[in-house]
Amino acid sequence: MQTKKTVSLQNSFSRLFSTFVYIFLYAPIAIVILFSFNTSRRNIIFEGFTFSWYGEMIQNSSLLQSFVNTLIVASASTAIAVVIGTLTAVAMFRYRFKVKGAIDALLYIPVVIPEIVLGISLLASFAIANVPLGRISLIIAHATFSIPFVVFTVRARLSGYDRSIEEAAMDLGANRIQVLTGITIPIIAPGIISGAILAFTLSIDDFIISFFTTGASSITFPLKIMESVRSGIRPDVYALSSIIMLITLIVVIISQLSAYKNAKKSGK
Amino acid sequence: MEKETESIKEPPSIAEEKPNPIVEIIGVDKFYDSNHVVKNLNMTIYEKEFLSILGPSGCGKTTLLRMIAGFEHQTSGTITIEGENVENKEPFERNINTVFQSYALFPHMNIYDNIAYGLRMKKVPKNEIKSRVDKALVMVRLEGFEQRYPSQLSGGQKQRVAIARAIINNPRVLLLDEPLGALDMKLRKQMQIELKSLQRKLGITFIYVTHDQEEALTMSDRIAVMNAGNVDQLGTPEEIYARPATKFIADFIGETNLFEAVAEEERGGTAYLYCEAGDLLGKSEGFDPNEIVYVSVRPEKIRCSSQAVEGFSLGGVVRENIYLGNIIKTIIMLTNGQAVRINTPVDLPVPALGSIQYIYWDIKDSVMIYTPSNDIIKQIENADFAAFAGEIKTKEAGNV
Ligand SMILES: Nc1ncnc2c1ncn2[C@@H]1O[C@H](COP(=O)(O)OP(=O)(O)O)[C@@H](O)[C@H]1O
Ligand SMILES: [Mg+2]
Question: How far is B28 from chain A (nearest CA, A)?
Fold first, then answer.
């Protein structure tokens, strides 16, 4: 039996605890945003407020270039991963074949394998296949580690999917392609979208695999930051990081809102 | 409501003209690995008829329906639709539509788009789609629901959408797999009436799968009773109820009392039989002496008296009188432990609890059922073993 007093004590303790967790999670982020407005070049003390780093960031062409490169690589690898991953998930859901169990298990390996091992293996593979290191090899590498995540999210969505819906469509005169484009894909779209978001974020902040699989012609944003650490990070990097965070926040809010709207629409 | 059901049942729509076969199932077998689910099945379904496929769960009804629709392929045998072998026809190439037990509505489309789907696939012009969807919505009484999503509808409404979505394509045959299975009793009765009148109005052949015998009896022109992959009997509801072909059907359709009896003699159209609990009479249909038959008598056809009636000596104790609204069900335990069920209208007297009663019936109300095991016994008894042995010997001699 619990008295009122112990309950309220527990309540205030859990409140304190969760406050602490949130501070722990968000304080570093707040610091980065804060120092992007710092007049001082060094980031130990806050001296005054300025927007000048944002101006410098725009002028820092190599920084911006790396960022643009990151976006290109992330978009391309996400597109590849979404197409291959979705088709794989649908095929695995729909058809019974003998080696399904083995393929299933094989999908987990790229996920659990240390990134550094995957990076080295990809590097070796590119060397053997004579693929020059650059943007193309980077896109292939990122698609490789993203595919399993898309398969997982799409398959999770499919797990509650009633096959007779597809049969009903076919019964009403839809051929296989029409069933796929008009029924299956729209229904599993939330799974595809979350897989795409996952693939995109994984690609944007990947460092280790990119480090092995790209050349000097195709530097990504994380690689650029790593490079600049040696000479001390300048606040314009903070400025760009802050902007990335803002964009991420907006994307998250939009996707949450549309998920909420969808849920309302279908009454769930 | 009762009255309406009766009037719907009366004239079977196929009787009006000479029936044309629309679906023919010829020697169809279906195996799932080594599981023999449908066994050498033959059946002809006629234009405009309401045919029910009735059987217990797991007997292969859905599999049969899915083979007709084209979702499943028979292991051997032929299915023809409108005289054409559909062996190589995909589901979307068959002029047949299905109403699924799980409704299978498209969750991401509103009701209008769900119903319009089939017409869109056929590239019907937009304004024609609109008018046909509107008509279908009126037919299933769902006007004003166009913009709703399937998850916002009740089970009965979803079922109506599924039906509208199928019939809007004017199929020649509509397949329905336990379409009312998920609905509650009252809604079910109402939908049975609606479906039946819809079928008559549209003149579409319905192949209707159900495991509910009452549903099959009230709605069908003909019933195919399935058991373990076979069609045991195919006939009108009246035929199947009054003259079940097997013990299984007698037991499955309606309620009945089965007496396992031995035929002693026949005289003047009456069979004199005996069972464990005593003597009984049945309809004489020419059996061999000492043949085992099952005598099936419906609960409403059994009567009882305190004195044994000529030809019967089935005595027992009245164990229960159960009030069931319009009837009282009396349970009498016979001397061999068999419980006999008797239904009496509430306005007639029933025997007192605990009293000793003798049961009897009019012999025309009894149904004689021969079981396959009888045939086997007969074959063994009639087999000419001497000739058989001789045949083996001559064969062996030939081989040497
Ligand atoms: N896709 C399948 N794979 C293997 N066995 C199946 C499959 N579908 C049905 N069966 C089996 O076939 C038998 C008949 O099933 P079904 O046609 O669904 O029966 P019903 O509809 O009469 O309940 C059952 O024993 C079932 O387990
Ligand atoms: Mg079934």
Answer: 22
Which residues of chain B are within 8 Å of residue A171 when distances are taken between CB atoms?
69, 91-92, 96-98, 166
Amino acid at B234: L
CATH entry 3.30.70.100 includes domain B21-242: no
Q: What is the DSSP string of A161-223?
A: --HHHHHHHHHTT--HHHHIIIIIHHHHHHHHHHHHHHHHHHHHT--HHHHHH--TTS--HHH
Please give the CATH architecture assigned to the domain spanning B255-376.
Beta Barrel (2.40)
Nearest-10 crossing angle of helices B155-167, B111-121: 20
d(CA B231, CA B247): 14
Q: Does residue A46 fall inside a structural domain?
A: no
Please write the tens of the pLDDT for every residue from A34-90.
888 888 877 677 788 888 888 888 888 888 888 899 999 999 999 999 999 999 998
Kindly report the CATH number assigned to the domain that includes residue A81. 1.10.3720.10
Q: Is residue A126 part of a domain?
A: yes
Task: Dig out the tokens for A45 from the structure.
Answer: 């003390």
Give the confidence band of B10 by pLDDT, cuts at 50, 70, 90: very low
Ligand 1 atom nearest the C-alpha of B66 is 17
Q: State which ligand 1 atom lies nearest to the alpha carbon of B55.
A: 22
The pLDDT tens digits for A171-206 are 999 998 999 899 988 998 889 998 998 899 889 889
pTM, to two decimals: 0.74
**Which-ligand-closest: CA of B54?**
1
Residue A117 sits in which domain range?
60-267
Query: In chain B, what percentage of residues exceed pLDDT 70?
Result: 87
Q: B67 and chain A: CB distance < 8 Å anywhere?
A: no
